[in-house]
Amino acid sequence: MVSNIREVDPYLEGGKAWMALSIPSDYGNDIAAGRPASLQIVADGSDASSTNIAMGYASNLIAGYAQDLIEARAMAAGPVASTGASAGGIDPRVRVWFNPTIESRYFMLPGIFALLLLVITSNLSSMAVVREREIGTLEQLNVTPLGRLQLIFGKLLPYAAIGMIDAVIVLTVIVFWFHVPLRGSFWLLIAMSLIYLMTTLGLGLFISTISNTQQQAMMTSTFFFMTPMMYLSGFVFPIENMPAWIQPLTYLIPLRYFVIMLRGIFLKGVGLETLWPQALGLFIWGVVILTLAVLRSSKRLA
Fold it and tell me: Other CB atoms closer than 10 Å to residue 193's CB: what's the count?
């Protein structure tokens, strides 16, 4: 196969699944001479559901075109030669990259990894601080020499440690229990997870600054942050299938960036040279949300 209809990035294309059709140089001559011709379909298997649908459409189109060719040759040859008209068909040869067996768990589990970190760390950092405000223990901090930043980082560091422990446990289960391949760098995955934890902990702290009770923090976190993030990140529904006016809003979702990075590291083995736009977007999101949380908080985190 030497010529491609469409040039594609074989590793990452904005987090989208892709498909390419490869046509050999002698394809036209084979079709004109009535000889069997072959085509190659190369598909990105990292999104199992979308890949199955796309491969079905492509196979049906090629089969329909091949049937049209056979019928046209049969009509041209007449009834005497129609018995041999089945010769000269098209043989589609399908090759799936990154997930040859098209296992759905390869696509879902990296997203679940990101979602679990979001739920655990943001809930811990928001609920625990609000609980201390409710029972009045934060009042005792007013008489200590701790500064605002010292207090904030002192509150967030234990939850960051818990988040990293959870990340290692979940990663171990994904790789060794569910046998999802980790083709990329383990240390790059850990580094990106640390940046992601900065965003989720900052989000939890920001929620704590706009909530007065644990119930209010839980409702705010669930309905105004986590639910939109889950549905608009590409974890459940492909972003390219969303309405056009919603797609730009997905760039405000930190889960989008981390899910793309996870699937790239797990399934495609790509490095920071490819993932740097997502890493930069996630880092900027974390810095902004932490800055907002710090500006809204005082020494009493009220």
Answer: 22
Which of 113, 114, 107 minimizes the C-alpha distance to 49? 107
Residue for token digits 């960036």? 257
Token code pair at residue 247: 């797609």
| Full pLDDT tens readout for the chain, 302 residues | 333 434 344 444 444 557 788 888 887 787 777 777 888 888 877 776 677 777 778 878 888 887 877 777 777 765 544 444 344 577 788 888 887 777 778 888 888 999 999 988 988 888 777 777 777 766 666 566 767 677 778 778 888 899 999 999 999 999 999 988 898 899 999 999 999 999 999 998 888 888 888 888 888 888 888 888 888 888 877 787 788 898 888 898 999 999 999 988 998 888 898 899 999 999 999 999 988 888 877 544 44
Alpha-carbon dihedral sign for residues 197, 198, 200, 201:
positive
Q: Is the pTM of this model over 0.85?
A: no
Query: Which amino acid would we find at residue 275?
Result: L
Residue 24 three-state SS: coil
Cα torsion through 40, 53, 243, 292, rounded to 10: -90
Cα distance between residue 111 and residue 289, in whole Å = 22
Query: In whole angstroms, what is the distance from residue 30 CA to residue 89 CA?
Result: 10
